[in-house]
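Re: heme C structure - here you go.
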Amino acid sequence: MTKKITGFIILFLAVFIGTSAMAQMPDADPKELWNHITKISPYTQWKFWDDHPGMVKGREPHGSFHKVYVNDQAYGSHSAPLKYGAIQVKENYNKNKKLMALTVMYKVKGYNPDDGDWFWVKYSLSGKAKPYGKPAGCIGCHGGRASNDFVLVHEFE
Ligand code: HEC
């Protein structure tokens, strides 16, 4: 009996914590997302994929070097598709390792079901978003890996 009650309490807490974490997630909106990744949950405190740590030499068009930070929802996704709420922030550096721009993928339920429900944004360092939304460019290039949920730097099982 006590076990059952403990089980219920744990379930209740999990649902409660889960929904309140979701409630804090931004809409598919470039300003809200910028606020989230710079102030509410600064992305520089997130994790890297285990198979893509720190500064890595990149392929075109994103620039010479990059770092890809992932939030808990992304890091905790062990198979494709990623969990809703997953965010990946890619810092794009030039050949002199100077930070130039951020490119971001944010998984939002119902946003774009045909293409993995990703909200795509390229930000300048001051947070100006261009392009954002469902850019054909981002989707076209990443779409070759739709089976890996459009993620290129990390392999899911
Ligand atoms: C011409 C191909 C191409 C286009 C267009 C493109 N990407 Fe990428 N993207 C890549 C490659 C290749 C990588 C893997 C890292 C690397 O080698 O630079 C990548 C990695 C990423 C990552 C790191 C997570 C992952 O999926 O691996 C993010 C975030 C990202 N791109 C966002 C964007 C956004 C936002 C756009 C549109 C503004 C975009 N990309 C357009 C090729 C592309």
